Amino acid sequence: MKPLVAIMFAGTAWAARADNPKVTGGTLSLPMQIALSLTVMVLLPAVIMSITPFLRITIVLHFLRQALGTQTTPSNQVLIGLALFLSLVIMQPVVTDIYHNAWQPLDEGRISADQAFDEASKPMKTFLSRFTREKDIKLFLDITKAPPPRNASELGLEVLVPAYILSELKTGFQIGAMLFLPFLVIDLVVASITLSIGMVQLPPVMLSAPFKILLFVVVDGWNLVVGSLVKSLT
After folding, report:
1. Between the chain's N and C termini, which has fewer beta carbons within 10 Å?
2. Residue 13 in 3-state DSSP?
3. Do 88 and 54 meet the contact criterion of CB atoms below 8 Å apart?
4. What gap in Å lies between CA 203 and CA 190, rounded to an integer?
5. pLDDT at 167
6. Distance (Å, rounded) from C-alpha 110 to C-alpha 231?
C-alpha cells in the first residue's frame, strides 16, 4: 500500500509540474506521467468513498430515505452531493495538514515521495483511529499477520483502512436502525387502524407516508440528522 500511495502523491505532482526538473528529476517520460495521473483519478473516488465520513453519511441517508418511504426522493444525486460536501467540511482539517506537510513540500521538490507519504499518513492515521474499533483492528492484524503495535501511531494503513471501513459500516447500520424505529411505529399504528376498519385494499404505506413526512418536517429532521452526523464525526 505504501508504494501505491507514494505513487499517487508523486504522480499528481509530476503531472502538474512536468516541466520542473526539481520535481521530475528528468527521469519520467510524458506517457509515464499521464499513466500516473490516470491512476490517481481512478483511485480517488474509491478513496473518498472508503476512508472518509462519506461512507457513514451515505448509509445513514439511505436508511433515512427508506424509513420515510419516499422511494427516490431525495434522489441519489442529491444524497451523494450532500454526503460529499459534508465529508469535505469534516475532512478539511485533515486535508489542510496533508497539503501543508506533504503535498506542498513534494510539489516544491523539498521532500521525496516516501517522505510525503509518511507526512500525509500521520493526520490520516489520527483521523481513522478515532473511529475504528479495537476488535476490527485485531481482526486485520490477524489477517495480515502483522505484529501487534505498541500504540495506534504504529498501525499501518493496510490494517487501519479496512478496519475503519468495517467500523463505519457497523456504525452506519446502527444509526440507520435507530432512525427506522419512530417511522416503524407510525407504520404499525396506521396498519392496525386500516385493518380494524376493513380498509384491506388500500396499502397502509400510502396512508402512513404523509404522516411520516409531516413528523419529519415538524421536528426539523434534516437539521437534526445532519447536525448529529457532523457532531459524531468531529
Report:
1. C
2. helix
3. no
4. 10
5. 92
6. 37
Taking alpha carbons only, the member of 101, 155, 98 closest to residue 130 is 155
The average pLDDT across 142-155 equals: 79
Residues 178 and 195: their CA atoms lie apart, in Å, by: 26
Residue 160 · residue 137 · CB < 8 Å: yes
d(CA 46, CA 5): 13
Please name the residue that has the C-alpha cell 461512507.
55
> Mind listing the pLDDT tens digit for each residue in 149-189?
777 777 888 888 889 999 999 999 999 889 888 888 888 88
Crossing angle of helices 113-130 and 2-16, in 10° steps, is 120
**Rg of the chain over all Cα atoms, to the nearest angstrom:** 23
Please write the tens of the pLDDT for every residue from 12-64. Answer: 443 444 444 444 444 556 777 777 778 777 877 887 788 889 999 999 999 99
- Identify which of 136, 105, 140, 141 has the alpha carbon closest to the alpha carbon of residue 120: 105
For 100-132, b/e burial (b = at least 16 CB within 10 A) is ebbbebbbeeebebebbbebbbebbbebbbeeb
Residue with cell 463505519: 168
Where b means 16+ CB within 10 Å and e means fewer, 193-226 reads: ebeeeeeeeeebeebbbeebbeebeeeebeeebe
> Is pLDDT above 60 for 103?
yes
